[in-house]
């Protein structure tokens, strides 16, 4: 696992976006062989989306042959609900880039047969050739997508009940009112995420310090779903100094030392643009 530690959120977001742009660039996707990416919502990826929009507007990267699969969606919120993840994605990203509408996939939490919706989602991911890169955020309790603590580490897309902690954390998007937060969501499973060829999780800020400490220093555990990254062949966590608060000084030094010797190829293409 790579652990990239940047000074602050802004640097993390830029690095992540440039990294993704580099992956799309080197894959040189075509309609026959598109680049398939898994995407999150939440406040964490916002800066990444802003930077990707900028690179797209500057003509440095195109999403014409990119297929996306979002991680999750609340049950019961239709796509026009301002707190639905459909709305979030179109508002903050898709409407501002050159992606084709038919290449965007987001679970529908309003459909009658939710189980079929989940099964079909997995089928579509397979048909697209699997996910090349899954970008994710992480909850304060280590959840990824809506795979709450206790989720099966080999799960696939299904409906999950949100924990009280997640409902409280997400109430900030619902006028601070927990009663307005849906109690269930459709979510890709942990297996869906780890089946991706590469997984990149962004964790920034002090509130995620415990989750980062578990992800990097503790054992794999269903109670901290993000720890599953330790089992992945190509996993990367990008974080900021603040979030490393609970890591051992030696751990921070170790990963900073490794990264100081690595120059990623995308850096020469996008970093100064
Ligand atoms: C929600 C989403 C997750 C996201 C998490 C953290 O629970 N389902 O995908 O990673 O929130 O959100 P934020 O980035 O706002 O901290």
Automatic annotation (TrEMBL):
Family listed? Belongs to the glucosamine/galactosamine-6-phosphate isomerase family. NagB subfamily.
Write the lineage as a comma-separated list.
Bacteria, Pseudomonadati, Spirochaetota, Spirochaetia, Spirochaetales
The name on file for this protein is Glucosamine-6-phosphate deaminase
Q: Which domain of life is it from?
A: Bacteria
Q: Which UniProt keywords apply?
A: Allosteric enzyme, Carbohydrate metabolism, Hydrolase
- Which pathway? Amino-sugar metabolism; N-acetylneuraminate degradation; D-fructose 6-phosphate from N-acetylneuraminate: step 5/5
Q: Which organism is it from?
A: Treponema bryantii
Where does the entry annotate site (Part of the allosteric site)? 151, 158, 160-161
Q: Which GO terms describe its biological process?
A: carbohydrate metabolic process; glucosamine catabolic process; N-acetylglucosamine catabolic process; N-acetylneuraminate catabolic process
